[in-house]
């Protein structure tokens, strides 16, 4: 297939996206349908085989850089791939075809200028599964551009259903990655030892000498033979910088320039997400939040932050546990209520600037159990006795989450879980939550009457779909760069 023809395929296939209403307030059944259409059909081996097959079909030049001996049946960490930069524009088509098979690429953590950590989601029975593909167009670490993809793909060889690199490339990549991280699992330490034995100490030292300054190349090879990288290569990152500065100062300057603009892009387009989970007491907010954090953690490098109603950057409140009597205290007077709410409004803005936005830039999964808009639905919980128009105005000016998940269930069902509020008040709140308005945030409704696992699965699927659409917009630049 010619490159021009393939480009047309990638643009057409990846342009598809579900309409905003697909997870809208009046579309509860769509959440269930999204999960059920891929249920019981997806597995990790099937995902990996499908990925390798599509890469070959679309003529993407790639290789699996290390830890390939048990593929595609097992994947103990993320899958590291080197891809030729001229095949970059074909990848959106690969991801879209995987999505049609039930594997949704919902996140891309851009950990370096040319390094992209893609995370895929699927439903396996009633469970949510994820897998990550760490894709690089060149190999760079702490000031060094160790090799280009063209160099890593040179002399690649076929291994069953996929491509693997030459021993020289695998050794260089694995040594740099594991020494940079300062740790290596037992299997990878053993693999480094075998690669040194295969290449011979002299050749291995020459390769290591391109990474480490002075005597440290020999030290690195000996550490591989002793399977002791973590002990013998302490502070290896500083040695990378020293190698770059002493041998390639001009390349280092260019490296730092690209890093600067990469950092700006990360700030402008943060890969974290801010989600607010709303609903009456007893609807299952805490359970869903815990489920989302666990099932989607790989998409955020395991980093998450949870806030209860407000950031508490200003006016921190002592944690008194679960409030079993949310309407026990009377509302404050009108002026005092407006003053309190204005202070909470300020807390949201200051908290967003100093805590939430930096967390999103660092790719955190930021969740709110309730949000500012909750005061419009249940003012007595917050002892608000001011005018409704005032709380509505502030709710429209507060920083909004990226996505709102509204949990809903039948009133008697909610009451049976928590008897803190009468059924009549629960029904009133349900209706009020449905009427909440946001300026730009998409609100989805999840029915929690179906049980914990289906609810978590539906919520995770909705978050993954929202992030997939966001990622699709951002990846348009991949195609534009090759037009």
Mean pLDDT: 86
**Cα gyration radius (Å):** 26 Å
Q: What portion of residues is helical?
A: 40-55%
Largest sheet at a glance? Answer: 5 strands, mixed
Per CATH, the architecture of the largest domain is: 3-Layer(aba) Sandwich
For the record, what is the CATH homologous superfamily label of the largest domain?
P-loop containing nucleotide triphosphate hydrolases
Question: What is the 3D shape?
Answer: elongated
pLDDT below 50 for ≥5 consecutive residues: which ranges?
1-40
Number of helices: 20
Name of the CATH first level of the largest domain: Alpha Beta
What do we call the CATH topology of the largest domain?
Rossmann fold
Tally of separate domains = 3
Beta-strand percentage range: 15-25%
Strands side by side in the biggest sheet: 1-2-5-4-3
Q: What is the CA-CA span between the terminal residues?
A: 17 Å
| Total beta-strand segments | 14
Structural class call reads alpha/beta
Can you describe this structure in just a few lines?
Helices cover about 50% and strands about 15% of the residues. It is α/β, with parallel strands linked by helices.
Question: Could you walk me through the main structural features you see in this protein, from its secondary elements to its overall organization?
Answer:
The protein is of the alpha/beta class and 483 residues long. It folds into 3 domains: 40-165, Beta Polymerase, domain 2; 166-269, no CATH class; 272-469, P-loop containing nucleotide triphosphate hydrolases (Rossmann fold, 3-Layer(aba) Sandwich), CATH 3.40.50. Helices cover 49% and strands 17% of the residues. A hairpin with a 2-residue loop joins strand 4 (115-124) and strand 5. Helix 7 packs across helix 8 (201-209). The longest helix is centred in the C-terminal third of the chain and has 28 residues, at 334-361. It is elongated and about 80 Å long. The two termini are 17 Å apart.
